[in-house]
Amino acid sequence: MTAWDDYLAAAQRLDAVRRVAAAVVAEQTKSLQAAREELATVRTRLSLQRSRLLDAARQAGLPPPDLTPAKADLPAATPQAVRPHLAVARNDLDHADGVLSGVGERPAGPPVLRNACVYGGYALLAALLEVLAFLGADERSAAALLVLGCGVVLPVFVFAFGWLTTGALDPPARTPGLGVLMSLLSLLPPLAMAVWVSTI
Residue ranges per domain, the chain? Predict the structure, then answer.
């Protein structure tokens, strides 16, 4: 084997080592870039959650929480060592987003105006039916007394229909006390009819 052959073999070995080293450097650079991008994303999400958490505490009347970050105990600051911790941080952020998204979604009180419209609509419909039935009957006949009797029972049906409707819209937001008051409004026409019949 000549010196030239030894030189070529050594050059080939060096080229192989260079290629391996270049591949390792490229992989390290790629991992480092990916870790930096993940870290930037985590930092942005942490900043947004910090604002949301402080706002939620303010709305609840609580003192602002201590959001000083804890120091991470990393044995080696390589991209391969950091990326699993970034994955854990992303999972924690997803969980925190889920918790924070449920804060303040439900209004402070039940939708009183909506429920009043529901019960009031049924009460108005019942009152109109009572008036029409009374106008179609003779004031001195038994039919007028039957209309008055039905008018006394109608508030129960008004409340039942209102209860079912508000429950279908949002069961926890029912307002039974308001429903009773609004249902009693359907008693006004029978009372007026009773006064009218008694004066004849």
Answer: 3-101, 112-199
